Predict the 3D structure of the following.
Amino acid sequence: MKIDLDSILKKIREDKAAEKNINSKVLVIDGLNTYLRAFSVNPTLNDNGTHIGGITGFFNSICAAIRQMSPTRCVIVFDGKGGSQQRRKIYEEYKANRRGLRVRLNRAYDFEDADEEHKNAMRQLLRIADYLEQLPITLLMYDNIEADDVIAYLAKEVFDKKVIVMSTDGDFVQLVDDRISMWNPPRKKLYTPELIKQDYEFTPNNYIYMKMISGDKSDGIPGVKGIGIKTIQKNLPLITADVDVNWDEFKDYLNKSIDNKTAIKLIENFDILERNYTLMKLGEIEIGGSTKSKIRELIDSPVSTINNYKFKQQFLEDKLYSNIPNLNSWLRIHFNKLQAFALSSHESGSK
């Protein structure tokens, strides 16, 4: 087989040129999802006996992703105040089990009661925001908008090169395509369209149909009773095929499947399907024009650079040195590349 050396060298040059753009490989992190996982399993205390597991666990998680993915930019998105309100207007019980974070999150550390745990969780979350402001990281949070919708907008409409979404939330599967991938830290898997098809037996596009039929317990969204994933895989071949299906095609398929008991039951419960599709389909919830402008303005602005003095001051105040014994080395290993791209954005802008 003849090797086209010119094409190979051209591709290498193109890759190197793209790497000079701060937005060429963006790691977008689901902030609250990452924080709650860290807080719930990490019992770490500082020298004063104060629980700091949320802070240290959060940074352990994002730094592991930065090391593995080697992004040119890192964007962390948190839910804004009242972020779930738009979906609660559609379904009142949406995420009802999460309201106020007053559920037992951390079973590894013995908090006195739920109120103490809630206050501790919020204290550490706010402190993380203080730390992130001192790093070459873009932090986004907008009132009345969930992080999921902001992340979808960033991945699909703002960034046009490689995007890696970090979360354990399966809703992001529907974003995955040849340009957008999804990093699931506990599974240690970087989901591509091929891997999603292998693991879930659905294409990323068709994953939404499985979710809206079977429901989502983590968000408190019930599906159609009696129809689970195995039934879907067995009786609805349209959405398990390698062909992407749009909403109108899915509806037509159900209406024409007059001999399919599963399809008939779905038609009988179509109000549930329509509700769940709107709740689960990323991009269905409207982000206002003014908010979109704010998001784009921040993304196009120069990225903040490391504030070593302020970061170290907070680090000493929280007594994190037992968990990160060599801070200078830790900062260099995880943030030097991001710092270099952040500095370049001050010279020429982020585009």
About this structure: The CA atoms of residues 55 and 127 lie 8 Å apart. The first strand starts at residue 25 and ends at 30. DSSP finds 16 helices and eight strands in the chain. The chain has a mean pLDDT of 90.
